[in-house]
Amino acid sequence: MIPYYPAGVNRQGKELLFVVLFTSDYCPTCEEVEKVWEIFKRMYRDELVFLEFKLANDTKKTFKALGVSWVPTVVFYDEEERELRRVEGSFTLSELEKGLRAALRRRRACLQAS
Q1: Which residues pair with 73 in a beta bridge?
Q2: Per-block mean pLDDT, blocks of 10 residues, the chain (114 long)
Q3: DSSP assignment letter at 46
Q4: 23 CB-near residues (< 8 Å, 6+ apart)
Q5: Structural contact between residues 48 and 104, judged by C-beta atoms closer than 8 angstroms
Q6: How many other CB atoms sit within 10 Å of the CB of residue 57?
Q7: What family is it from (predicted)?
Q8: pTM score over 0.90
């Protein structure tokens, strides 16, 4: 359940891969990975849809509904809102790219199964 699709993103007939970063203002590790996240976003800005959620009173339900109990967490979703891969805790650019490759493999498997 991705809470919303960004303006301009067409859900109809278009395959999408969402990458969602969950963070908190009270998380020192979240600050540490910010540069890595920004580099990853620049590298794949034309291929992926990026969303970010900070833990706050108005986002607690979203975190809980999506099973996010650790920050930072990066979750890859397909256009059907299926979770394809999750990276929890501190991460490097290499780990995000590994997560992306795993998400793409799982997505292909899902497409072949349907």
Answers
A1: 22, 88
A2: 49 72 94 95 92 92 92 93 94 96 89 78
A3: T
A4: 30, 52, 53, 54, 55, 71, 72
A5: no
A6: 6
A7: Belongs to the glutaredoxin family.
A8: no
Domains in the chain, start-ordered, CATH in brackets?
17-113 (3.40.30.10)
Nearest to 79, CA basis, from 9, 7, 8, 23:
9
In the block, residue with structure tokens 């990066």: 74
Provide the 8-state DSSP code for 54.
E
Scan for tokens 């908190």, then name that residue: 24
Using CA atoms, how far residue 88 sits from 13, 14, 46, 71, in Å, is 31, 28, 24, 7
113 touches 95 (CB < 8 A): no
